[in-house]
Write a sequence for this structure.
């Protein structure tokens, strides 16, 4: 019997972490085993087949030239941990999915820039945080993400106040909201990397969102066979 596909899931180290439990369930539905990674949950980088960089606190502005005086919630230890995992994934071709903060951090590691606060840029999209799929996102026709989700228009949730401003090397923007702010990026290098600004782990009951986790598991299985 083939070994189960194991997916590292980074996040905060708190005992009660809804995003971890929901991601774990989504991966189980996709046929994989979730492995929790945090500053309190150490896992060898070689022990997994794919990587999810999860959502959470803001990224320290020092990593992308932001304003250090801005009021942000930071977790420097987590920044360093996740950046190490991202570099490992980039070096080894590990399939990778970035969620909200995770998408932003992948972008920063690849040399991209962020909007430190998008609230003043909102004109057509409410900036009220919520878990329900109330925000409209348009995916680029022909993008890998549109093929995965099997649609070009999505309703997603929104918990962020930062966003990708300039995509990093090897990334392109493939999803935007009504204000044209970046909502999704994907790799142009052929490596399986997708970043989404929303939280699909809280929307696993929607087929279009569960397909993101199934895509990651499928990519991991392909890499294991190579």
């Amino acid at each position: 019997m083939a070994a189960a596909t194991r997916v590292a899931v980074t996040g905060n180290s708190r005992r009660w972490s809804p995003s971890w439990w929901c991601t774990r369930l989504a991966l189980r539905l996709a046929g994989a085993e979730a492995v929790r990674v945090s500053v309190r949950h150490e896992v060898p980088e070689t022990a997994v087949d794919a990587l999810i960089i999860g959502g959470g606190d803001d990224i320290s502005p020092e990593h992308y030239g932001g304003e250090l005086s801005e009021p942000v919630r930071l977790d420097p230890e987590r920044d360093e941990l996740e950046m190490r995992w991202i570099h490992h994934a980039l070096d080894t071709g590990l399939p990778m999915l970035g969620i909200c903060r995770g998408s932003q951090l992948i972008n920063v590691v690849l040399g991209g820039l962020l909007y430190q606060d998008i609230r003043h840029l909102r004109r057509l999209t409410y900036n009220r945080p919520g878990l329900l799929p109330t925000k409209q996102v348009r995916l680029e026709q022909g993008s890998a993400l549109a093929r995965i989700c099997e649609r070009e228009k999505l309703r997603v949730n929104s918990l962020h106040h930062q966003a990708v401003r300039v995509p990093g090397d090897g990334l392109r923007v493939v999803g935007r909201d009504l204000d044209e702010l970046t909502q999704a990026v994907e790799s142009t290098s052929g490596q399986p990397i997708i970043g989404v600004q929303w939280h699909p782990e809280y929307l696993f009951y929607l087929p279009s969102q569960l397909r993101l986790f199934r895509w990651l598991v499928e990519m991991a299985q392909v890499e294991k066979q190579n």
Notes: The two ends are 18 Å apart (CA to CA). Residues 39 and 80 are 10 Å apart (CA to CA).
